[in-house]
Each structure stands twice: as structure tokens, then as C-alpha cells.
Predict the 3D structure of the following.
Amino acid sequence: MRRTLFALLTSSLLVRAWLPDNAPSSASISAFANSGTSKIRGVNAGSQYILEPWMAADVWQNTLGCGEAQAERQCVETAYNGDMDAAGAAWQKHWDSWITQDDIRQMVAYGLNTIRIPVGFWMKEDLLNEYERFPRGGFNHLVKFCGWASDAGLYIIIDLHGLPGRQVANNAFTGDYQSTTGFYQSDYESGRAYEFLAWMTNQTHTNTAFRNVGTIEIANEPKREDSGDTQWLVQHYYGSAIDAIVQAEEVLGVADAGRLHIAVMDDLWGSGPSPSTALTIPQLSRLLYDDHNYQFGPIASAGNTPSAALTYTCADTVGQGNRVDAQTPKVVGEWALKLDMLAGQEVATEENRAFFESYFAAQMDMYERTRGWVYWSWKVQGSADFVDTLQWGYLNAVVAGVVDADLSAMLAKSPC
């Protein structure tokens, strides 16, 4: 009831932030006209600035020489002996080649209109201390990258993917693979996050390369549990992080029409109390809810067959394929074709190709009942089977003929 009340209250307010359907004059989101829809249709720039070894094995081994290191910090410490400048020089080769300006143009040619860019707090280099080892120079490249995306007319979501102190353990997407988390209930680590968010907000409003940034996400995929850590996240961090962004905009005198949406993971992620629990009505009015829906686990439990996958995806039950609930506006910020039942099978099998076309179209159909979707990820480097590249990489799936470059034609294939 409380969540529904908040939704009703916020829906009655003038939301002081922009999405593509009410873009300020400073933005140039021509990719929406090209895509023929007001819905967000996008991809994540996965492994561009926080590199996950499973997504880019050749880069990890041969371009960067990271060997058995599990994440970027561990690679800098072991392969570069903590020399962040030397690591930055090596990483520059990766930043320049993983997603290029030609890739950005190809996204638009494929009918995509949005890009979500995962970044780490270390892009603001003065937040580092002597105990942290991350490659230097990423922010300079991010400026160039966002300039390409803005020139191409893409809507941009900047996602704080790697938080100070790590928000989850043993995961390369934090940039720092360790068995503990130091972010939660820490004034020091959360303070560095607020500083990053205020700084990033300032950049989006003062540097024309960032003119199409409409959303900043304040914490990607925190712990999925109800604990003291996630209660602190909801009751303390979210409100303070929102305030850091709002206060930065107030100092700059940003008009309501040009203010940023602020993304948080939605209730369906399962990080303790609802993210709305401790927020004021003005804070709630700034939110864009981010829903990550990877279905391979639930579908395995539902029978692990193609028919079970489509039935699950097309179900009206909120929390399956249907992601529409009281939390709005919402975008499905990560999803994929990953399914365990066809692991290792070649895409060339016509039966598999037809199923995955239907499965992609079904998810697309259901997620466009929200504000839209952002696929994980633009590309994955690896073998030509469904285990990695074609189930996780959007470009890979288009090139293989699984996903139609004409997304309107793709949507028409939905069995839902």
C-alpha cells in the first residue's frame, strides 16, 4: 500500500527531470527519430570501462596481459606492479578499440536509440588512494565516447557500476574482485560515491560531450538480500546520493526541464526494503527505476524448454516477463538471451534460430510496456555458440541473423 501511495503521489507531481520524450533543447537525440519509437531501445557498453574477463578473453590475455587476475584492480596490482599510469597506457588501447565510433554509428543503423555506460568511481582520479590500483585516463576517453554518442543522437545513461569499497563480493563488474564488501555502512566509502556523483553531474551540465546524458544511476546491482547492509543502502545511501546530484544541479542553476533522472534498482531486484522507503516526495520525483531481468534461472526451474521460456516471458504475472508495476518510470536496464538449456549448441540449427528470434521478440514486447529496454551487452568476444557471444552480445546476435536489424519487424515476431 505504501509503495502504491508513493506512486500516486509522484505521478501527480511535475517530475523535475528529463527522458527522451521531453528532452531539453540542449540535447540532440535524433536516434529516436531514426528508431521510429519513443520507447528506449538500447544496449549497454559492457566491458568498455569496467572490463569483465569472461566478455573479452583475448583483450584480457593479449592486449592487457592480465593472466589469471580476476578483475581490473587485481590485474594492475599483479601484471603492472601497481603502476596505474602504465596500466592506463595499456588500457587506452582497449578503450580505443572495444566500442569505436563506427560501433556507435552501427547502433543507430540497427534502430537503437540509447546507450547505458557502466563506469567506476575511479574515473575521478583524485578519489583513489595508495591502496587502490586502477588504470588511469578513463575519464578523458569517456568524454570522447559520450561525444560520439551525443553526435549520433543516442540517449545516454551513466551507470555507477563499480562503487567505492565494492557493493558485491567476488564479481568483476565492481572492478575489484574480493571476498568482502566495504561499501555498506561506511561514511568514507559512501562519501566518495557522493563526491563522484556530484562531480559527474557537474560534468554532464558543463561539458557539451555529455549533452545527451539524461540519467545517472547511483548503484548497480547491490546485494540481493534483506540485511543491515541493504537497509542502510535504502535508508541512508539512496537519499544522500540523490541529494548530492540535486545539490550539484542547484549550484549550477539547472532548470527543471534539464535536470537528470536518477536511476535505482527496482523492488524486483530484491535488495531489502523498497528503494522508495526513506525518500521524500521531491526525491522520488527524480527516480527512474532500473529492472534487470535475467531469466535463465527461473526458466530452468519452470522446465528449461523453449515452450517454458516463452510461457514465462509472456506471462501477465508481474515479476516474470511482465515488469509493469507501481514503480514508474521504469526501464529494463539489463537483459539477455542467456538460457542454460541450449548451452553450447550452435546457432546454425534452424530450430534454435527460430526459437531465439521468438524469445528476443517476446522479451522486447514485454519490456516495451515500460519505458523500454537496454540489452546486455553490445558485444561479447568468444566462441560462436550460445554460451557467450550470441546469448549475451547484441551485435553478435544481429550478425548471426538471430536479431533483425529492423527492430519494428523484430517486435512483430512476438508470440506474446
User: Anything to note?
Assistant: Confidence is low (pLDDT under 50) at residues 1-13.
